[in-house]
Amino acid sequence: MAGTLNPPSPTLPIPAADQCVSGIRHSLPAPAKLNLFLHVTGRRADGYHHLQTLFRLIDHGDTVHLEVRNDGAVVRENALPGVAPEHDLTVRAALALQAASGCRLGATIGLTKRLPMGGGLGGGSSDAATVLLGLNRLWGLNWSRHRLLELALPLGADVPVFVFGRNAWAEGVGEQLQAVDLPPAWYVVLTPSRGVSTAAVFGSSELTRNHPAITIRAFFEGLTGNDLQAVATGLEPEIAGHLEWLSQFGKPLMSGSGSSVFVELASAEDAERVLQLSRPHRNGFAAQGLDLHPLHGWAE
Predict the structure, then answer these.
(1) pTM of the predicted model as reported, rounded to 2 decimal places
(2) Which of 59, 88, 127, 158 is catalytic?
(3) 33 is an active site residue
């Protein structure tokens, strides 16, 4: 499997105090997530939806580059096309932590993007969580995970699970998290050429919003699915084509609100074989499931 899967590392070394100074660039992982199932169980008065899902972290994602600044400024060095600074989740995360803590330090934030925008893999949310975890350590705040989680939810519904740092059963709008131990698994993830709008999927009149709640045991007994999948495939037919192709290798599923789809495989070798068969007509990657976020040890 040379060059395909990165060996999962449960944690990264915590920088020494003399490394948490300006002028040193830290490159930190922001792993993707998969939703192993996703049910919409209701709708709140404010328009948000009640969900049930199981988040699985995987060893493929973006890289966030952080450098401490002494001038207090928060600067994004390579802005995403079409994303204004005030909407950039990494900048918003840094500013939120700065304001809540009263820290006078700033940060230069860079980003190496590997995850597609609008792909249902939590890329932007994971980037924001890595900024929270990284600056918590690099600014010397040493906040608890609980305090960081309080900042995470206002940034986005998927940000908390990356700060939580473990595979998790989630309810509410995604913020009620319970750690779940999952067996080793490998995945092939296909990413259609176009993303889908999360707002369009959740706003569709065709979306089922009253799925009965299930138990964790029911999931492990095989009761799975993604209530958003039918709506998303109607908006982007390429999703349906990728799901159909993957179905010859297992039971594929869409992640989140799309557009990425995945299938679980029994081994790294199987994942590599399926990935190679998907090329050159489909974009995607192979990944191994993680037990812990690589920065899990950066908050207690």
Answers:
(1) 0.93
(2) 158
(3) yes
